[in-house]
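Review this:
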Amino acid sequence: MRFFVVCPGGLEVPLAQELASIAQRPDCKALGAWVIDPTPTSPTGGVGLAAPISAAMALNLHSRIASRVLLQMAESPYRQEEDLYKLASGLAWEEWFSSKQTLRVDVTAHRSPLKSLNFATLKIKDAIVDRLRDVTGDRPSIDTAFPDVRVQAHLTATHATVYLDTSGEALFKRGWRDEKGDAPLKENLAAGILSITGWKPSQTLFDPMCGSGTFLIEAAQMALAIPPGAIRAGIYGDDVKPSRLAYRPLVTSAHGFGFQRLKPFNEAAEQKRWGSLKDAAHADMIERRKQFPDSESLGISGGDINERLVAIFKGNWQRAQLPGLPVTRQIDALASKPPANAQDGVMLLNPPYGERLVIKGGRGQDRTAGGDMERDSYEQAEEPEDRYAFNLETGRQSAKRSSRESLKKLQVQEEQDPKFVEFLRQFGQHLKDAFGGWNVFVLTADMALPGQLRIKESKRTPLFNGPLECRLFKFEMHQKRDATADLK
């Protein structure tokens, strides 16, 4: 079977590396041979691979970077909408789902000659519905909000590809997030960024503007071998009982994955393989917890000036099946220090976008968000009025014009805010003074950030945070020379 694993733009290389790692797991090797496509050299919005159909279960359970796992049903040349109808109506949809289940169809395109994607979507939907009606005598209902089955088509200038979505809810929805912070960051983007930084569980990780804790929770789950799909799969550590959690998971195994509503995955053989994958993941979790018995042993910590966000972080941490409470406290980033006097480590932060950031203590009342600008294609797709907007060819994501205009206004505000500019200058100096020997990574939509920090970046990686084109800047903080040593 052919799969296309979708990811945020700019994370194709980390995703390909992750897929190769998943394929080497003993339980995944037992499913059969995996052949991953060559790593893309430019943004493509994902990575393709050939693997047994059972691989869909492993990919949805284990991929931290994927947004969705699409199973290719067919590919064919086309010239007009009627060709799309013929392509879709010729597929045996009745072998995958029943007419009693609800359906959603979405279409994306790159250089397609068709004038209306809405009409193309309608033709594919009609083809599927007509096929099921002709074969079963009944037709499925359409549900654009919470469908049982999602069909995705992508059109290039000459070819159309039809996919079944095996994920259901987008995979960044792990099930532990209650509320977002002021600079919302999707979990799979955070995981991809952690991969880019090269951070390993043996290293100290610190986020002085942690917000709701996305970076730190993803890192802690990685260290503890908790699969990103654990909650949706109903996998819990022996010391974690959902009914006893101080904060209940917001997504449970009842939501599951899209593949669980497709006929082939409900056959006895596939159910047995699914059980084996979950058992192996559970065993890994139990074994890794012996290495990291509490939150302090993880070496992962953070802080935030906003007391409300610190409280949200604590709740998210517990819902994510992590031990105890996170090592965190309310603190101004300008007063932050290396955890436990660590001589080196990785600092990773995502400063709030579009804010007038006022540096003060207390509850940080003057820290107001500029709005949730992070809405990627598949989050938009959860809303009936929106469409899948991800361009599979370029890796870029479309945003509504109003969002672009709002973002420009926010960026202008930020650039003109003297308090924010002064904060960046002070924070840059603080990094030099307090974090010598550390590698600092900052995700931002502000391309001028290095100049504002007055630190020369050693690397910049283009990424997309929803519709925002961003950069992940790396700063290598060198140890200050001891002036007294030069006099000896």
About this structure: Residues 241 and 321 are 9 Å apart (CA to CA). DSSP finds 15 helices and 14 strands in the chain. The chain has a mean pLDDT of 85. The longest strand covers residues 68-77.
